[in-house]
Structure formats: C-alpha cells, structure tokens
Amino acid sequence: MKFSFVVKTVASVVFSRKLICNHSCPGKSVPFLITRKFQVLSSLRSHLEAPAWGSKKHKNKQKFKIPYINIMADPKIEEILAPFRAAVKEQGDKVRQLKESGALEIDLKKAVAELKARKKILEDKELELTPVEASFDRAKMEDLLKRRFFFDQSFAIYGGITGQFDFGPMGCAMKANMLSTWRSFFILEEQMLEVDCSILTPEPVLKASGHVDRFADLMVKDDKNGECFRLDHLIKAHLEKVKSDKKTTAELKLECEDIVIKLDGMNKEEMRTILRKFEMKAPLTNNELSDPMEFNLMFSTSIGPTGLVKGFLRPETAQGIFVNFKRLLEFNQGKLPFAAAQIGNSFRNEISPRSGLIRVREFTMAEIEHFCDPSDKSHPKFDEVRHVQVLLYSACNQMDGKAAEIVTIGQAVDDRIIANETLAYFMARIQQYMVKVGVDPKKLRFRQHMNNEMAHYACDCWDAECLTSYGWVECVGCADRSAYDLSQHTKSTGVRLVAEKKLPEPKTIDVVEVVAIKGAVGKSFKKEAKDIMEALSKLEPATVVEVEESLKTNGKYVLEIGTNSYTLTPDMLEVKRYQKTTYVEEYVPNVIEPSFGIGRIMYAIFEHNFKVRSDDGQRTYFSLPPVIAPLKCSVLPLSNNADFVPYIRQLSRDLTAVDVSNRVDDSSGSIGRRYARTDEIAIPFGITIDFDSLKEPHSATLRERDSMGQVRIPLNEIAGVVRDLSYGKMTWTDVEAKYPKFEQQETKS
Amino acid sequence: MKFSFVVKTVASVVFSRKLICNHSCPGKSVPFLITRKFQVLSSLRSHLEAPAWGSKKHKNKQKFKIPYINIMADPKIEEILAPFRAAVKEQGDKVRQLKESGALEIDLKKAVAELKARKKILEDKELELTPVEASFDRAKMEDLLKRRFFFDQSFAIYGGITGQFDFGPMGCAMKANMLSTWRSFFILEEQMLEVDCSILTPEPVLKASGHVDRFADLMVKDDKNGECFRLDHLIKAHLEKVKSDKKTTAELKLECEDIVIKLDGMNKEEMRTILRKFEMKAPLTNNELSDPMEFNLMFSTSIGPTGLVKGFLRPETAQGIFVNFKRLLEFNQGKLPFAAAQIGNSFRNEISPRSGLIRVREFTMAEIEHFCDPSDKSHPKFDEVRHVQVLLYSACNQMDGKAAEIVTIGQAVDDRIIANETLAYFMARIQQYMVKVGVDPKKLRFRQHMNNEMAHYACDCWDAECLTSYGWVECVGCADRSAYDLSQHTKSTGVRLVAEKKLPEPKTIDVVEVVAIKGAVGKSFKKEAKDIMEALSKLEPATVVEVEESLKTNGKYVLEIGTNSYTLTPDMLEVKRYQKTTYVEEYVPNVIEPSFGIGRIMYAIFEHNFKVRSDDGQRTYFSLPPVIAPLKCSVLPLSNNADFVPYIRQLSRDLTAVDVSNRVDDSSGSIGRRYARTDEIAIPFGITIDFDSLKEPHSATLRERDSMGQVRIPLNEIAGVVRDLSYGKMTWTDVEAKYPKFEQQETKS
C-alpha cells in the first residue's frame, strides 16, 4: 500500500456537477506524497519511443496512428494480479445483485464503498508491478517551473494564497496557445456558438442548478483557533495514524481499515460518530473539534450597494450557456442540433487546496454544451472519427476487476460501451486535442463513471484522465446530461427552454385551457389584471382541471403569483375544451457536455514533457509541441559583437512579421548555455547569427530543441522555414533533408 | 444647456486609479438622455468621406495618413464661441494664479469646480454648433445588437442584473478578435511579458494600492426600503427639478446652479448639508434618506473556509503585474525597460449602473505596465511614430478655453505637451490600434488630465476618448504613474521592488549598519533571534543612527517586529561604519500605463460602424473591419436545390482550412434577404453558389458588404481571395480590378 495516496484519488474534482452528484463528495481526497522525489508509474507499458517533435513519426502521433499496445499482458504479472481482480469481480457481482434485488440504499452504498476500496487496491498493485518507464523528479520540474516563471503562487510577496496561481510570461503564452488551439479545434472547426457570460451570478440561478443546496464538502473547525479541516481527509489521516501505531490491537486495526473503506458512502451523522468515537483532535493544536458542518464551495458576495442581492462567483461556466439557450436557439434559426461553447474562469472555495495546479480556487474552463434531440444522438461527422483508438476503462471492466482496454470509437458505440455517437464523437475529439497540445497518448485514458457515481440525470459520463505523479487525474469530463439543466431553469423561471420539431404527420390534440373574462377580472383587480391573465394562460392542463374543480366545489379558485394570492370566482373564468391540429412537437433538448479543466491539462502536459538531457542531469527542459510552446523561436548572436546587431534586429522583425513569436537572447554566456536557457522555456527552434552570417551568401544556424540537431539555412529563407515548422506545415526531418547539417558542437562555440 | 447630460460626463470612470485620485468621485455622473432618438454630434467636421473597408483609401486610413482637418475654423461659429472661450480662460488664469500664490485648498477647489463648469458650457456649445454629420438612432442600433445577440443583459430569463452583460456568438467572436488583435499589436510586436494573474485578491494587496481606503462613492439610502442612490446624481437631479419649477425664485435658481457647478469639489459634509437643506427625499417613494455614506466599489468575499481571510474581486488587473515585478525583472534578466501586459476581467460594484456597456460591474481590461528608468523615458521605436497625427486636447487648451488641436506625436513631445517619448509612443500606438479595430479616427481624441484631476503620483495622464451618443467617453487611459505602485508594495511587504543600473563611474559611499552579536542575542531570544537579526540587517541608515542614540542615552533599544517588541542592550549590538565602493545603483522604476477598457472601445466601434442603407431605412448593418468581424464570410446557396449542397459543404471546409470563419445560411428567403441578415451580423464577405456554379468552369459570386459590389470568381480561387481580403493582404479594389463584375440585382435573385 506504499502508493495508497498517489493513485486515482484526484478524479472527479474539477467539475461541479460531479460534486453535486457525489453529494458531500467524500471520495475526493487530496493526494499528498510522502516523499517529493519518486518515480512515475506508468500503467501503460509501450515499446514506442517518444518521437521528436516535428519528425514524421511525431506527425503520425498527432494523427493517432499509434498502435496501442495492450497493457497488462505479461502472464507473470497477471498471475500476481489474479486474486485482486477476482476480489473486485466478486464485489462487483454482489453490487449488481443487490441492485437487481432492490436492496436498501444503505446496504448498496456500503457494498459500493467496499467495491471502490477493492478497485483501489487492484489499481495500486497494477501500478506497482508495471515496469517504470522513466524516472521523474517532481521537485526538479517544479523548480524549473518556478525559476523560469511558468507559474507561481499568487501574491507571493504578501506570503501567497493557497490554491491561487499567477501565470508568468511563459505559462501565460502557453495557456493562450492552448486556448487558441482549442478555439480553432472546436469552435471554428465545428462552427459552435461561442458565448462570454458573467462570472457574478445571482443566487436564484445557482439555486435552480442545484449548487446552492448541494455543492458542499463536510468540514470541522478547531474550536479555539477556527482552523478548518475537510472531514474525510481528517478521519483518513487519523485512522492511518492509529493503524500504524504499534500498540494498536489487530482488532482495532481491522476496524480502522473498514472505516476508511466505507468512508466514501458515509453521511454527516456517521462521520460525526466516528469523529467522536476516536476522540479526534485538531492535528497541530490538539484542540477540540466542532461537529461536522456543510461548507458550500462557492464564493459569495453581494451585488449592488443594498447588500440584499446575494450572488456567487460561478463554479462552472455551463450555467451561462443554459440561461441563454433561447437566444442561442433563435440565433441558430431554431435548428437543432447545435453546440455552444464558453472559455472562462470559474471559482471554488476549496477547504484546503493542495497539489499545485490540480486543485485550485480559481481556474479556467472550456466547456461545450451540445444541444440535441433526445431521440437522435447520432453525429453527422461520426464517420470521421470511427477509426480512432481510445483506451477505455468502462464501468463494466471496473466492476469486473479488468484492466482498461483499447478499442476504436466505432466499436465502442457498436458494442454500446459508449452510449451514443455524439458522446463518442466528442471523446475522440477530446483525445485528438489533448495529444495535439502535448499530452502523452500512452498516459491518457477514458474512465466511465459507474452507475453510483453518476449524477441522477446523466445517462453516461466519461472522464478523460491523465496519468501524472499524482495518479490518474481527471482533466476533461464528457457527460450526457440529458434534459436536466434546461428543465431546472424552466421550472425556476417559467420560461420554456424547449425546441420544436416537425411531426412526421400532423397530430390532433385535446386542449383544455382557462380563459379570463377580461371585463370581470379587470374590474376586480385593476392594474394586477394583466398579471393574472398572463398567469392563467400559462397553467398546465392538470392545473386547469384543478381550477375547474375548485370553482365547482368551492365557488372560487385562489391563484398565487409570487407572494400574492388572488381569489377568482366563476364569473371571471371560463374553461374551454377543444381540439387542435399541430404540425410540430415541443421537446426539451438533451445536452452532451465536454468540459475541459485547462489548468489540469496544462499540468499533465508539463509532466509529460519534462525532460532531462541524458548527458547532463542538470539540463532540464520541456519538449512542448510548437503549437503551444510559449515562444516559437529564439534569436541568438554568437557574441556581443556589434556587427551582429542589425542582423538580429532584422531577423526578429522578419519572424514577427510572419507571426512567429520570438525572443532575442543577447546576454553573455556561451551559445550552449543560452541554448540551455531557451530549452528550459521550451522554445522549439533557435537561430544563431555567427561570423559566417555576415558574409555573402548570408546564412544562419537553425537548431531543433529535442534532437539538438542543427542545419545551415540562407538568411532570407529562415523566417519562412521556422513559420512552417511552428505551424506544422513542415517537419524537422524535411528541414534536415533540405539543408546542410551544421556540425559544430554547441558547447565549443 | 440642452445637452448638459450628454457631453463629457462619463470620462475617467473605467479606471480605478482615476477614481482613487478623484476621491469620492463626484464628477462622474451617469449620462442619461431625455430622448432615445437623437443625432450624433460630431465636433470634428471633416471633408473626408469614410472609405469602404478594403479599398486603397481605407488602407491609407489604417496607416494614418489622413489629413486631419482643423476643427472649429468657421469664423461665424468662432464668433459665437468667443465669449465662452474667454470665460473659461478667465477662470483658468484665476486657478493658475491661486496655485502660484499658494491659496487655501478649499478656495482652489472651488475655483477648479467653476473652471470645470465653464468648460462644460463651452463644450456643449461647441457640439451644439457643429454641423451634424449623420443621423444616428441609438434605439435602432440597440435593437439590432439585441436581436442578433451581440450582447444582452445577463440572466435575462431571471429578470436580469443591471450592469452585467453576456456576449452572444457575434459579440463574443468580435471581442475575441479585438483581443487577439491587441495581443499581436502590442504583446507580440513589442515583445511584452504577458501574465495572467488571480482575480481574487487578498485585502492587504488592495490596502497597499489604496483601493480599500479610497475606492468609494458617496451614497444615501432610502430609510424604509433600503434602495441606494449615488449622492451626486441625486443632488444634481433634485436641483435640476427645483430649477425647472416655475415657482422657484430667480435667487434660488441661481443658488441651485451654483451648487451644481461646485458639486465636484464638495466633501461628504458639504453634500450632507445640501441634502438636508433642500429636504431631499427618495425619488420614487418619497421616504426619508439616510446620511451620506461611503460605499466601497469593490466586491468583497472570504477566501477559504474560516471566513477570516478577506478578499476582493480585483478592480483592475494592474496590481497583479506590480506584485510580480521582481519575477518579471528576473525573467527579463534584470534589464530595463520592459513592459508587462495582462488581459482579464475586473469588477466594480457600481451603485446604479446604466448606459449599457459603458458602465458595468464586470468588464474586460487590457493593461500594459511599461517599467523604465525614471531618468530616461525615451523610447527606442519613437521615430517610427513621430509623424503620427493625433488630436490633442491639452490641459493648457482646456484651461484657456481653446479647442483640441491636431499635432504630430513628435511635435507634441518637442513642445513638451506630452511629458515624454514613451508616453507619446504609446499614445500613437493606442490610436493605431483603435483605428485598426474600427474606431472612427474623426471621433477620437486624447484629453489630458488637468493638474487637479491627476492622481498625486502621476506626472502626466491622457485619456483616449471616443465620441459617442453619450458624449466623449474615456476608452483608454495612458498615464505616467511614476514610482507610486512599486513603492507602495515595497512599503507593505518589505520586499524591495527595485532595479539596478550601472553607475557611469564607481562611487564610494559611507555605510552605517547595526550588527547583532550572535551569541548574546541568541542567548536572550532563542528561537526569535533569527528574526531579530534579520530585522536589524534591514534597518535604514537613519534608524541605525536612532538605535545608536538610544543605546547611548537609554542603555537599550526597543525593536518592534509586527506586534512583538524586543528590548536590546548595548552588549547585543555593534554599530559599524565603513566605506564601500559600489558600481551599481538601485532605483525604483517608473511605470507608464496604457489601460484599455475593452467593452467601452467595443461600444464605440458599434456606434461608429452602425449604418443604415440609403435606399431602405430598415436595412441596418455594422461596417466592422474584417479583422474584428465576428465571421469573415457567409456561404449561401441560391436556393435549397439539393445540387448545391456538396458545393456549399466543400466551400465551407475550404474556408475553415485557411482560417476564415464562415457561416452557411441555407434558410429559405431570397438571396437579398439573406444578404441583409449577414450584413446585420457584420459579415464582410459573402459567397453565393448558383446554377452557374454547377457548370464548368465552376465559379461563384463574391459580394462585399459595405459597397454591396459583386464579382465572379473561379471556385478554386475563392477561399484564398477571401483569406487575403480578411487578413488585409488584398483590397476589394484589387478584387474588382482582377475579376469580372457580377451585375445581377440582389433583390431579383
């Protein structure tokens, strides 16, 4: 159990709906590491070497022709894993059986908690037995990220705030590149409707979405100094301590283990009992702890000066799209399906954020809401992705203790592993995007939510997870949210968020409605008559029948509008029944939602691209693909000789003119040292002006970061070549084939 | 005084520092219009016709070779204005004289208020006398903006929230284009360091910047229902009402006028007196009003679960850059000057926001902080903008009652109208950017802050103002902020935010420092010894002398660290004096800050580009330049004939492949009607596939929005042509010269 905190503990945290569906979200413990220096555990063994960016092989990688190697095929390893797999399957079957027999919810919950625990033991074992791919030193990477200001804690000179980060020039440019790639990959390519909605959100909106009531974690407070702790974290840590105490009896140890396993399924009261039974105290001060309380994770504020309009910082961008559904549908000329998208910041007041960019209080999301007819979730472009191979960790495999499997998207839909074409189409596109921006495809899987993890409204939900030193981290959620959100907002506002479709043939329907007799209502209610008539016209058929009954039985009907009530008498109302032929049908569209946590993807990219030069452990760099590299090209004079200056200036201008971001490094230091500096900030290409550049025909050296290969190129061609390399129109192999190699050693210059 | 609310009342509101310097900011009344249908008043008469986008003439416009015509040259108009100009000058001279003679602040304030009032009367008169350029119907424009969902009130289905807006697909795309143009125009072109910092800001940071104490407006509350009113607005409106009452005596009318004029300079107590004297009540309810109170305009919240860490939503993005200064300087290898930039949202809890996008609670800013040596504010690229002509409304001209003047940037610096090259360089660049994204250069001026408007730390400050139907609206601020911000954060944190420069020759300086005697301090203070020694090492020379004195006189020195104090005795300390040769000098960099209010610029662009077809008053459109148009091209089949479908699909794909955003409109309706629809959403180019397109050689019609000109282009060339048009590499004139004209009438198709 050495890595018990490392693996698969951070999933389903970025996205609020997951938190909602998980109720008080106990499953989401923060992973912390006992040692900071350790090795990446890859569960995906592969015989592939990572090809250099820009090489043909790499291009292929972007095109997803990598033959995924089936993992866990080693019979020796499988022999060791067999009992663990069996234990999971046994429990999975038990859960299935309990469900079928309609067992009590509490029993089901306990069985699921036990299933999760067994799954975790199996996964730990899997990772433990997988041969280590490469050593990874997180401390070294973090040092580089900080030193070259990719990002750092916000307000560091004021002592910093946990869970908040500022992106420096390199991180900011990389993030901007990730977003602009996202924009062209999704919005432009799929002609989505992009919106940009308010962050400050009034309470009723988030009441309707469920966030006000259910977007909470349980916490306890230090009675004296007020420090807060997430309850599940606290209990887990305490019981681990008890277990590791030599004096603890075997019986007590077993009890502790049992509690940790079942913690996920426990409610507030059950957790309180454990808290008190073990007489837990505040970790550092040893003070008494308060009873558990729910802590809503939204930041609240007041809008306007009166202090009466309560608002929150949005916990997700999706609601902004849902509340604008009507306008968007109108903009799309009433046609479905269509997708809307939004890129923007969301906020969560985490109780105790840790793990760097993975759990933060302020983060950028990119969300897509694809609206479609619930009876038709096919996708017109599905054939374009049918062949794409993905690593799927289905709910079924999870229940059966099986490993994740590689299948094509088409097969997964045919086999009904993925619920529908649209969901599957987006999963393929998510993978393509992730790999394009630098996620290692060998460290990317889709994990399906098990029935019990899924929000009650969702039909199917898959998380794109990246393997990092924190374990498998959920980076993108892809869910079929059914009609939940639009229905909720319709219920709260009375505005019908629906679409219309032509019926195959006209339909005759019975209409029952209550009509106000204008004169009578007007006379009795004056100014308010208009509101009353409007309210009456909106009544559902069932309510109309109620009105009719009430008029008959009680001689009146009391209509409520907001906090006002109006007594209506038979002389004011007329109930009409008639038939109507309709050619269209109204329906509430369903929503398929891919939701990207940009910061988490970014973190995975950092880990997957952090490299150490084989000949020098101190030379670290990021092998970021050019498309997201913060700067595309460095421009270096060999020395500070004044003759180089005009060439350097002109070159920098030429590069800027063809949209290649670049940076001149004319500081002192050998050319090798300066290359190392540019490697650190992931600049993929470097141009050096030397004494030969001054002679006719003018030329310069172009160097590629990953291979450190160098060629000699005429000065008037070089900007164009770097542009083509940067935008994927040429590979480094092409360049090496076309131009003479430059042999001089970097360090000798 | 017909336009008394329209003109020049909305400036200096977007940017917090302005608000800070204006203290309780009384001058910034919200402009409201008596009638919604009215005419734009252009103070800049010009004989120029606005050339069509893409024409050669237009290209010139982007290059700023437009001969600005001196305004107000009509002798008849000048005759009428003469007494108004004289009145301003008289008062301006009086203010100057008061300053020179060191008059009391209250007298000076009153004189300045009177000066402002006279200036306003003059400006109203100027606008009134300027021949009207074109009729402008704001209601019509707002209808179009709303109907085609450029933007709309946030959470409209929940009743909406004032001062918050959601951008729909068209507004969002336009905003994204404005920002990406900004990014390449400033950040890429000037190699600025872009950062992306937290929105949630802990209190101490904003305490240091001055926002916690001074970023407030005065308001009063309805005693019964709690409704809030901005005090200056309330007083002004009340007095206007009193004035317009027929029963009011001439004497009282004069008094009212006098108060309105002086309102700007009044403090809380003076305003309270007026409030009570005139027995003002809440406008709608007629309830009693509370005493004036300061209302801080920042949204506050708590960070973390304890409720103890107070935070605010940032009111500007600039502070994020200042607190990261050290890291940025390091990133720039210690070299100055350099500029950092940030694009992001800021928040202000306005008391009663109105005027659409101009006064909002949540808005996007783009800010640049250019750090430089205070003794050298030259700019290396100044010669590139020296020739740029700008319309300057200098403080001097404002004091003298003169009109704004057209001068070149170079001349303005030579004549010391603009304080330094760097400030002037940015002003030229601001203008170039504004015109590039669609601001009408004839409705753009730079207004200098007068001495009394300027924050105490600023050396010079210019606002880029756009003329709109709300009057001149401040859209970009460009200020020399001196060393204020870095000094403030240094003071608050003890972290020295300074740069170093090489001295022309080494300097020998006297050093005096107090050194702790380790053993003695350690023995007395144990664990705290380290802190004490660190604190001692940081003492300023003056304090060291104090320590020495105190040890001598009192036999002890009491050192305070935070809330703790430590008594140090002579045996613990040694004061050392020696000489040191230094080769570098530390200094606090100065900051030149261009600060863009993106929403306001966007609003000005909408107004400046709103057009009505001369032959049909119902056909309205936006003549947005292609670079910011939400979509570049529409693709229209002539009818819903199935044969067109493959052509339409292929064309859309071809356009997307060359990065041309496009939209297929295959809805029913004549081609003319669909053109009108695409004109409404500002799509500059439209391609129509008709029956001739199906024949060899395949061709299609390309139409330009502003001129409605059409040409016939081979199908395989068309995507490239539209790309070149969209990215400014080809003009419509070029296209018309190269391809045959297409003569068919739009409406006949």
UniProtKB/TrEMBL annotation, chains A, B:
Q: Taking every annotated instance into account, which residue ranges of this chain make up the domain WHEP-TRS? A: 80-136
Task: Give the matching SUPFAM superfamilies.
Answer: Class II aaRS ABD-related (SSF52954), Class II aaRS and biotin synthetases (SSF55681)
Where is it localised? Cell projection, Axon; Cytoplasm
* Domain Aminoacyl-transfer RNA synthetases class-II family profile, first and last residues per copy: 279-630
Can you quote a single GO CC term?
mitochondrion
Gene Ontology terms, MF aspect: ATP binding; glycine-tRNA ligase activity; transferase activity
Reaction(s) the record says it catalyses: tRNA(Gly) + glycine + ATP = glycyl-tRNA(Gly) + AMP + diphosphate; 2 ATP + H(+) = P(1),P(4)-bis(5'-adenosyl) tetraphosphate + diphosphate
Primary localization: other
Source organism, top-level taxon: Eukaryota
Q: Per UniProt, which keywords does this protein have?
A: Aminoacyl-tRNA synthetase, ATP-binding, Cell projection, Cytoplasm, Ligase, Nucleotide-binding, Protein biosynthesis, Transferase
Q: What is its EC number?
A: 6.1.1.14
Gene Ontology biological process terms, A to Z: mitochondrial glycyl-tRNA aminoacylation
Query: Which Pfam family name is an example for this entry?
Result: tRNA-synt_2b
According to the record's subunit comment, the protein's assembly and interactions are: Homodimer.
Query: What family does this chain come from, according to its entry?
Result: Belongs to the class-II aminoacyl-tRNA synthetase family.
Can you say what this protein is called? Glycine--tRNA ligase
Source organism: Daphnia sinensis
